[in-house]
Amino acid sequence: xxxxxxxxxxxxxxxxxxxxxxxxxxxxxxxxxxxxxxxxxxxxxxxxxxxxxxxxxxxxxxxxxxxxxxxxxxxxxxxxxxxxxxxxxxxxxxxxxxxxxxxxxxxxxxxxxxxxxxxxxxxxxxxxxxxxxxxxxxxxxxxxxxxxxxxxxxxxxxxxxxxxxxxxxxxxxxxxxxxxxxxxxxxxxxxxxxxxxxxxxxxxxxxxxxxxxxxxxxxxxxxxxxxxxxxxxxxxxxxxxxxxxxxxxxxxxxxxxxxxxxxxxxxxxxxxxxxx
Amino acid sequence: xxxxxxxxxxxxxxxxxxxxxxxxxxxxxxxxxxxxxxxxxxxxxxxxxxxxxxxxxxxxxxxxxxxxxxxxxxxxxxxxxxxxxxxxxxxxxxxxxxxxxxxxxxxxxxxxxxxxxxxxxxxxxxxxxxxxxxxxxxxxxxxxxxxxxxxxxxxxxxxxxxxxxxxxxxxxxxxxxxxxxxxxxxxxxxxxxxxxxxxxxxxxxxxxxxxxxxxxxxxxxxxxxxxxxxxxxxxxxxxxxxxxxxxxxxxxxxxxxxxxxxxxxxxxxxxxxxxxxxxxxxxxxxxxxxxxxxxxxxxxxxxxxxxxxxxxxxxxxxxxxxxxxxxxxxxxxxxxxxxxxxxxxxxxxxxxxxxxx
Lengths: 276, 357
Hints:
Oligomer: heterodimer
Largest sheet of chain B: 6 strands, mixed
Number of strands of chain A: 0
Largest sheet of chain A: none
CATH class of the largest domain in chain B: Alpha Beta
Structural class of chain B: alpha+beta
Radius of gyration of chain B: 25 Å
Distance between the termini of chain B: 33 Å
Number of helices of chain B: 10
């Protein structure tokens, strides 16, 4: 076997620095552009205080938080069940849950319309019987976000639960803890890091949801026009323009950064979740 | 009788059927992995459900297929310790021990401390399990299992991951704890020496069945079959044919060598048998004397281990190949190293004869 020559080492180092550098610059430049605009364009700060922006922010925050809470409530039992059982067709269930992750969001929007739209599978009889309509309501925004974002939580939670040694739960049973008690006192704390990561991913995806919301919920100011939709809208209307899009983007960036820092702070590091 | 156990179970391709009992003693469940030892503990703990059978401890019925009784593991009150220990990593040592206890927190804390004290872990209450040594973790797992004041302790290879000296300490600690708490202990192991050291009674598991169950010495000295002999480390299992019988005296032809032995089994002349003798039961003699059960043989191979030597003998005339264990001292006194040819004596009282399968 031939030892690597010093020259090969230098080439490898050059590649690492070169490619890594290009990648880093590519990542930093867009944010630099955003920052430069925010500083040079006086209208940006003015617009962040406009009622339109405020309405979009409030709508985005509460819908994405609600969608995330629904994902946790509805998704946790399924995630736990998938982590602990094996049955024929399990991979199909797994695939169904993962589907919205790889599906273009616009397709999810169309699919939601065909199910819950006024002439949809469930939507039409529901409309006739009760007069309840989902389309073009804030409910539709939450539904679109839930469909697109919940799989991110379920995936992470399933992986988190799978990594918890079932032996811990079995021993807890023999120590007198019921299944629910064991889940709360043993399984949940063990999976906390994974669950937190899933919650952040799910919320971020819900916050950024655009395609499905646009098709299923539309873009009605104050009702269904979330931050991403407001950014699109800003381009189409002359009143806000690029300055409006930049101010909306800056707000989203700040919110995202705050959430990220917060969850980093409350999440235990790996030492807490893995033990041998 | 404290524990009575009788269960049958089909698990995929695994077919399990076993019955035994246990009193205030240590019953060792011995066998290779996959023999059904751990399954037995899980059936008792309620983590697996038998197809049919009856499991009861001190008159409390855990499972009875006849009356459709099946207590949850939570309600069985048995201590269960697994090889990986399964300490709860996010809880402190004291919280682990308190986990199974009932009552107000201060009371549980007091009891946990008292229990930890008995396991020589006083002052470790607030430590995290991962900050402890292997032996300390082991003792925390035992203390946690005993936290509910259980009458029955199930130990699934609890010492397998530890080094030898630590295992010795923990074994004697287990014997002490068993006495102090008056426990029935079921101890699963695949380690022959551990089985020998701890067992009051011994159950030999193989392929989902108990091949033999009885007092330790009985099982070690009188295996009921070739398979049990192999599993319990009987080095010499010699096929032969009965050539004479007079009351309990029996003569067996083994590869042309006539061996005298005693048996109370119903074995007749002409029947095929297995003659068993442990490697450490064979005597080495320098000169051939006129006595029964001797064979002239030479050393074919030998192997030294810490406490002694294992010698493999090839017969000079008729007779079987034999394996002999000799402690270091007699090995040196006899000067085995400089002499190849020996007379081997197989004492009749150390020969055990069973009918061949």
